[in-house]
Every structure is written in C-alpha cells, then in structure tokens.
Specification:
Layout lengths: L2 H14 L8 E3 L18 H5 L8 H9 L25 E10 L4 E2 L21 E2 H12 L4 E4 L42 H9 L3 E4 L22 H19 L5 E2 L14 H8 L2 E4 L8 H14 L7 E6 L5 H13 L2 E3 L2 H7 L12 H10 L18 H9 L19 H22 L4 H7 L13 H14 L8
Parallel strand pairs: 1-8, 2-5, 2-9, 2-10, 5-6, 7-8
Antiparallel strand pairs: 3-4
Length: 488
C-alpha cells in the first residue's frame, strides 16, 4: 500500500469515519502497510504502539521499549476488542484467527524435517500428506478452538494469463490472481473444494467472504497490470455470487467481508464501505495482516505474550491458509494454550464485546453490548462507541429506529447539536409509543388499549446526555416497558 493511498484512506475516515452504522469495520492486527517500512518511531512510540510491534525491521526498537518497561493496554490497541476480564492472570482470554484464501486442497508434505528445504515435522504425528485447509482443521480440533475462514469461489476462469517471476507480487498471475497457484486453480476455492467448505462449517467454524474470482474491488497501485471490477455493481455481483454458492453447498451465510488486496475505491467512485452497507456485512480490514509470513506471525505471538500475557485478548489476527507452516502453527497453538487463550471465531468474539473503546470495567459495558445483541445499531463505523461523547438527535433517532429494521448509516452533522436529557426523553417517548403499538399489533391485541395502559409519559430522564449513560437508561426503560427481555 503506497503512502498516498494510505493518506487518502485516512482522509476518508476523518471525514466519514465517525458515523452511526449497523455494519462496521473490524481492524485486523498484524503488519502495517508497506509505506511504514522506513518510518522512524516517533517520540511517543505511536507507530510501534499502533501496529503491535509486528514489523521485523522494528524488532530492535520493540525490544528497547520492552526493556524500558513501556506497555500499552489491550483497550488502546487497534483491532482489539475489550472482552470481560479480571485481575486473575489465569483468566480465560479470547483470540480470533482468520485464515485467508481458503479452502485450499494444496498438499502439505509431512516428514521428519530437519534439513534445509525439507518439510517441517508435525507435532501431531500426522503421517500422510494433507490438504492445507484439512490440516488447519485438524490442528484446531486437536486444540479445541474455532476460527474464521475467508473463502473465495474459483480462479480457474481467470485465463488467458501468464505468471510473473517467482516470489514477486504477481507470481500468481500478471492480470488475474490464481489460487492456490498458477495453473493449479482447481485445488482451491468453494466451487472445486465444496467438501472442504462443508467440513469447515460442520466443524463449527465461521466464514468470511472475499469476491468469487478473488479480483480486487478497485485499482491496486502495487499491481498496476492486475484487472479489477468495473464498478460497485459488478463488485457486488462478485460477492453475491460467492454467497449464493456458499449457501447452496452449506445452507450457511456470512456477515463478514474481507476484500482481496485490501481497501480500494471502485472505479465509479464508491468505497468498500458502501459495498458493505449495501450487502449488510461487516468489513474485515486486511491492510494489517501477516499474509504468508508465518515466521513473522510466530515471532509476533511469542513477543506479545512475553510482554503481556493478556495483550492479545480480543484480537483478530489474519494469516494465509494456503501454505500453513507445520511447526509454527502448532507451536503458536501451544503458546496460546499455555497462556489460557480460547480460540473463537470473529462472530463469537463480537458477541462478547462489540466495541474497541469500551472498557469491561465500565458500568455501561453490559447494557451497550446487550443493546447491540438485541439489534440496536448504536456504534460508529470505525468500531468505536465513544461512551463519553454527548449524543445528538440524529444518533438517538438512529438508535431507536434501527431496532429490527435495515436503515442506512447517518453522516456526521456539525449542525446537529447534542441533546439535553429532557429532549432525549421527549424523543424517546414518540419511539416507545410506536414500538408498543407495533408490538400490540403483532400480538393481536388492541394497540389503543395497550398504549393507554403503558403510559409512555412515565418515561424517566437519563442521568446525562453522554452516550454511555443514555445506553444504560435506554436499556433499563426498554426492559421496564417489556420491549426487550431482561439482561440475563
């Protein structure tokens, strides 16, 4: 990713990032964009902190920080959810792994290893060559964890084409991507490997979708000769085709989208965020992923756990599922097991905590997550909740209007002033009346009588207009009026 592209992305987020939205961006932990290779660590160690000490060229700077005792909490890290935790060092911690470019039937040769160029030895003592995805599934089953598999359809129709130089960016194809390798397209994808896809779902793992033929959403400056989709409509068709095929094979669907080659703008001026809103999907941002760098992945896990055993709790980490390294994958599982981590899918992690800036010790933690689980869209697109910010009228109306409905996200409006507690109560009264009326109609009762019995004018006022206090108040009042079930 070039620096100019990265700056344009940041400009987009500054302009539109803080908007209420049902479908949000979930950042992945891992390597920073390539534009950071030669960046120096700033005085406040911003780049080291933001990107989790993952660059191999920053290893000395990272070790210096660790020697000086500098730490950063999980709540301050990008791509990390704040899951409930205690002061007990043996507490249960949660981590999500995303295996990209799956399913892959490319064989992994299992041998004793030991020499240069030889295959690694599996600690599971597997004796025969296995498909890459099958091997990952067996490791996860052995260690009792679930993960998320980012799948694609097939690249076998991406011809005529020619492969690039070995180990180059376009080694898998000049104009098109070819997975798991050039001229071996039939060994990967949901179309040709439906058995592996069904096995992923049968074993309880989660799915994320890319595009069917793994084409990028928009122009990729790092691969200028690589074709992409013409515009938003063709990109949506590529994603929908894959979702339809997945449903046909497994009767399962996915609400997670991992765009090939990262965040790109479409040729007709749309963004991947617009695509996710139209497709009703959360965005997994892969700009910070390990790719196929399994050694870097293993080093990152080891150094993070040595610095702070709880540092990875709530993280989402992506790694290629095309050619898993035997020793590294299994040793990582051993390290996570020793640190008392549970491997969960991204969907499971979302159920435990939805927002990266809401601390588990906050008194609004439970009601905010409960409202999200009930179907209220109360977060911002950049996966924050901002409990201390004062709520605006458009946000409150979006909260209340989003329950059980698909509504578009609202843009930030500078003229939309923060509300006073009394105004919050008056706006909520209208929505509560409407919700009670709809509930009465759905149960076959008298809407008029129900509205009279449930005197909405008895609605109390929130303690303040801060979003965290409004969420607590709203959760309490919705339970009191019987509009949602009590928190268990």
């Amino acid at each position: 990713m070039r620096l100019t592209d990265w700056m344009n992305e940041r400009k987009y987020r500054r302009t539109y990032g803080f908007e209420s939205a049902r479908y949000r961006e979930l950042r992945l932990v891992g390597k920073p964009p390539s534009s950071y290779v030669n960046r120096k660590v700033t005085e406040n160690n911003r780049y080291i902190y933001d990107y989790e000490f993952s660059r191999a060229d920053n290893i000395k700077a990272r070790n210096k920080l660790l020697r000086e005792g500098k730490r950063v909490s999980a709540a301050e890290k990008k791509g990390v959810f704040v899951v409930p935790k205690t002061d007990n060092p043996n507490e249960q911690k949660y981590l999500s792994l995303v295996f990209t470019e799956c399913p892959s039937a490319a064989k992994i040769k299992l041998s004793d290893g030991g020499g240069k160029g030889r295959a690694s030895k599996s600690v599971l003592n597997l004796q025969k060559p296995l498909a890459a995805t099958d091997y990952i599934l067996q490791v996860l089953e052995h260690y009792g964890g679930t993960a998320t598999f980012a799948v694609y359809g097939s690249t076998e129709d991406n011809y005529p084409d020619s492969c690039g130089r070995p180990s180059s960016r376009n080694a898998d194809g000049i104009h098109y991507p070819h997975l798991p390798a050039f001229s071996n397209d039939i060994f990967g994808g949901t179309h040709n490997q439906a058995g592996l896809l069904r096995k992923i779902v049968h074993n309880g793992h989660d799915l994320a979708v890319s595009t069917y033929d793994y084409l990028p959403i928009g122009y990729d400056p790092d691969l200028p000769e690589r074709y992409c989709y013409d515009g938003m409509d063709s990109a949506i068709a590529g994603v929908q085709r894959l979702r339809d095929e997945i449903y046909g094979h497994t009767r399962a669907d996915s609400g997670l989208f991992l765009p090939p080659r990262g965040i790109r703008n479409t040729n007709d001026g749309h963004t991947v965020f617009d695509l996710c809103d139209r497709m009703k999907m959360h965005l997994l941002n892969p700009e910070e992923a390990f790719g196929n760098d399994w050694r870097g992945f293993g080093r990152y896990i080891r150094s993070a756990l040595q610095a702070d055993p709880s540092a990875l709790s709530g993280s989402i980490i992506a790694i290629s599922g095309l050619r898993p390294n035997l020793n590294i994958l299994e040793s990582v599982m051993e390290m996570l097991k020793s640190a008392n981590y549970s491997l969960v899918s991204v969907s499971e992690l979302l159920k435990k905590s939805h927002f990266s800036d809401l601390s588990a010790v906050s008194d609004s933690f439970r009601p905010v997550n409960y409202l999200e689980n009930c179907g209220f869209a109360i977060g911002y697109r950049d996966n924050t909740f901002a409990p201390g910010r004062k709520i605006r009228q458009s946000e409150l109306e979006y909260w209340l209007g989003s329950y059980g409905k698909d509504i578009p996200p609202i843009r930030s409006n500078e003229d939309d002033e923060p509300l006073a507690p009394r105004s919050i109560r008056l706006i909520a009264q209208n929505y509560f009346t409407r919700m009670l009326t709809e509930k009465a109609k759905s149960t076959g009762g008298s809407a008029k009588a129900d509205r009279k019995d449930q005197n909405v004018k008895l609605l109390s006022e929130p303690q303040s207009s801060r979003r965290g206090d409004v969420a607590k108040w709203l959760c309490y009042e919705l339970v009191r009026f019987g509009l949602i079930a009590p928190i268990g």
